[in-house]
Fold this sequence. Notes:
By secondary structure, this protein is an alpha+beta fold. The chain contains two helices and five strands. It has helices spanning 3-15, 67-70; strands at residues 17-18, 28-32, 39-43, 50-52, 61-64.
Amino acid sequence: MSKKNKNDLDSLEQRMQATAKSAPMLLFLEFKCPFCDELNVMAKALSSEYVLCSNSSCRRVIQIKNHEDVA
C-alpha cells in the first residue's frame, strides 16, 4: 500500500470517530455524528464500537472511540 493511500485511510478513520458521553448511573450514551452533527442517543446495552447515525439522511457508520469506557 502506498504512503498516500495509508494517509487517506488514516484520515478517513479519524473523520468517522466520535467520543461518547455518559455517566455511570445512566442507561444510555450520547454522541454527535462527525458527518452531520446530529446528536445520537443509544442504550448502553445495545451499543457497540461501530454504530449508524440515527439521522435518516445520513446513516453513516461511526466509530465510538471510548466505547469500552462508557459502556
